[in-house]
Amino acid sequence: MDLLAETLAVGGVRGTVGARIEANEPWGILWPGSAGAAFYAVASGTAWLELPSHPPRQLMPGDVVLLPNGPGHTLRSAPDAAVVLQQCTEADDARARGGVLRIGSGEMHTNILGASYDYDPAVSTQVLATLPDVVHLRANHSGSGLDDTVRLLSRELTQPQIATEFVLNRLVDILLVQLLRVWLTEKPAEARGTWLGVLGDPLVSVALTKLHEDPAKPWTTDLLATELATSRSTLTRRFRESTGRTPGDYLTRWRMDLAAIRLRDTNDTVDTIARSVGYTSVFAFSRAFRRVRGEAPGQYRHSTR
User: Fold this and answer.
1) Cβ 127 vs Cβ 196: under 8 Å
2) How far, in whole angstroms, is CA 47 from its chain's centroid?
3) CB 137 within 8 Å of CB 182
């Protein structure tokens, strides 16, 4: 099993192309916060990114930046460039329809590709939600697939053909994985404490893979440690260091995520769903679900529909 691919898929992570900014100085845009993640790739020119509680940072040509938790933020041509209300309105419209936002006249010196990522609110075990407020990668990523994907995306945007929207949305999904790969390789220290940090610990990575491959198995920490040929204390310590949780707590949350999706999206009985995630008793499953989700399975099914 590809652990990252599985977690992104279950988490319902989907990307869509946002606004493409073509601007001539001066310019400034305030983007309101959103439920998903925001992404930018600077094709040409420069920009300044500002977020609450963070110092302004300059984005250079070839830079890519991911804002995993969708905070409100400002993009400007310079730190002192004014934010224009009309430009903000036009920018919000361009982001919603995946259009081009042209600011100013004459030759456009700045070209920025934007995208957004949504994920399933029913799933608590999310990759993006654990990342830092800003994931910023400078240009020249050693000829990585990230550079190639950004170039393909830029070409598709500037030279649209048949099914361009379909291609763009697939490229945006690929773009996210390429960015995470480069970030994990270039900045492993920043990845510690995030979901991606588990990929840096072979023991925890294998443990998670086993839990994901067979969530219905009657796992205990002792059984998992035995299968990994390690001690219970070592597994618990390293698991907690990487995920912030014990193996048992993580497994329960993963099981409840899988159950929540089926309760919302299928007509399977509660008994069937309970057994699929490792509970032989509907009562035990309902108690665990209520403890994690705050409501009984039947109530959750009704409220989410």
Assistant:
1) yes
2) 23
3) yes
- Would strands 47-50 and 73-76 be described as parallel, antiparallel, or unpaired? antiparallel
- 181: which residues sit within 8 A by CB, 6+ positions away? 144, 145, 146
At 214, the amino acid letter reads D
Structure tokens at 113: 């590709």
Quickly tell me which residue has 């073509």 as its tokens.
22
Residue environment code for 227-256, b if the CB has 16+ CB neighbours within 10 A, otherwise e = ebebeeeebbebbeebbeeebeebbbbbbb
Using the structure block, give the residue that is written with the tokens 């995306």: 153
How many other C-beta atoms can be found within 10 angstroms of the C-beta atom of residue 151?
A: 12
Write the single-letter amino acid at 266: T
CA 36 to chain centre: 8
The two structure tokens encoding residue 26? 């001066």
Provide the CB-side half-sphere exposure for 137 (13 A, CA): 27
Amino acid found at 176: L
CA atoms of 200 and 291, how far apart (whole Å): 31
> What H or E segment, with its residue span, contains residue 153?
helix 145-158
Q: Which two tokens stand for residue 263?
A: 């309760």
Q: Please name the residue ranges forming H helices in 159-246.
A: 164-186, 188-191, 202-213, 221-227, 232-243
27-78 pLDDT per residue, tens: 888 888 787 899 998 888 899 999 988 999 999 988 899 999 888 899 999 9
Instruction: Write down the pTM of the prediction.
Output: 0.87
Alpha carbons 29 and 66: distance in angstroms, whole number:
17
Decide: 38 and 64 in contact? Cβ < 8 Å: no
